[in-house]
Amino acid sequence: MVSTRxxxxxxxxxxxxxxxxxxxAAAVRRAAREIGxxxxxxxxxxxxxxxxxxxxxxxxxxxxxxxxxxxxxxVDLGFSARESVRGRxxxxxMPSAPSLLSLPSTLDSDTDExxxxxxRVFMTSGTATVAAAxxxxxxxxxxxxxxxxxxxxxxxxxxxxxxxxxAVREIRVLDDRHGADGLYRRAAQPLRAAFALLDAASAAxxxxxxxxxxxxxxxxxxxxxxxxxxxxxxxxxxHYAEALATARLAGDAALxxxxxxxxxxxxxxxxxxxxxxRAAEAGQRVARPLxxxxxxxxxxxxxxxxxxxxxxxxxxxxxxxxxRTAFDQGAAxxxxxxxxxxxxxxxxxxxxxxxxxxxxxxxxxxxxxxxVRLQDPHFSRNLALYRAQLAWDLTRSGTADEAAAAxxxxxxxxxxxxxxxxxxxxATTVRALGPQGxxxxxxxxxxxEALPS
Length: 453
Known about the structure:
This is Tetratricopeptide repeat protein. InterPro entries: TPR-like_helical_dom_sf. The longest helix has 24 residues, at about 205-230. The termini are far apart. This protein is mainly alpha-helical. The chain folds into four domains: about 10-85, no CATH class; about 95-250, no CATH class; about 275-330, no CATH class; about 345-453, Tetratricopeptide repeat domain (Serine Threonine Protein Phosphatase 5, Tetratricopeptide repeat), CATH 1.25.40.10. Mean pLDDT is about 80; it is low at about 85-155. It contains 20 helices and no strands. The radius of gyration is 23 Å and the shape is globular. Helix 15 runs antiparallel to helix 16 (about 360-375) and helix 16 (about 360-375) packs antiparallel against helix 17 (about 380-395).
């Protein structure tokens, strides 16, 4: 079978203008409501249109787009005429070896060996070649914008599934070391390739298909987390919803629990505390049969965070108590691979966040100090995050000099960590510190103001 290469829809991209993909998707949904249509447009759909993966929209989207741009036809909007695509598989060819994920040159390469390993992530062999998604630290950024697709094929095998699973692991490693800001857009490329593989894997064995669904769902969560940590909350919400849908299609309870866990965390950060509690409770229901006390502990802490933002001190304390009881049962063979970050340091950090949300700043600072003390120094992003939390709690406790020292330590780490979330926490802390004065605070303000924007 001969496949057609996807052609980017540059017209549609120009129509989006200066709006982000998420902002444009919101405009599409508003336009749909104006004419009584219902479309689930999100940033990923907009990205697929612009990449040329959607050559012609379905009828509902067609009506919405023509409403948004009166007098235009589908062809005027950069789409193919409907009659030219009806009945055809609109799969596009994956270039044989593009660089689909590379970090910006401003990040240091830890070792040549690491770069060598990362370049081979998502590489497959044989006639069903998927792609070469370079996770090296020196790839050209422009390559990351290449359209992502796969050959139409009858069977997906071990090589392709392993490539998806390896992409998940390597993205997590890079996130731990460098933060999300430089990774998100590049990580979206392997994600699109993974979901294209799902469409192509019509004749895969059931065991292979199940692993592919799980791998694609975990990849969606990983990319969603990168969006979350880099401040793209609407994009993160879309990716988590995609992972949840994938989990339910595959009947994968472990993936579903992971999706609920991250969705709860995101809802709290978006100010949707009740949604955070409900997602955490749903995650606990799904996770209970999995037999992982650590997973139950993490989900209980997600619930505690939501309850703290609701001002429910009693409910928060009860959730923290359940979390500690479950955590103290220790690691188990049923613990999921992605939970490797959830150690005592993370537990203390999440508890600190709860007390901080409840306004008990000294108690929050005690837990944040423990988190900093217990954290593995190799996880640079989390170390910066924990210290940023400590700096905030100390600031609100009135301990200005110690808070300023903690901010200095975070600034030292930001030379190699790119996280909008951490930077946002620092900005809030520095604003609160300013009025407290003192030589340590003045020195910090001078350093902070000298930072490049």
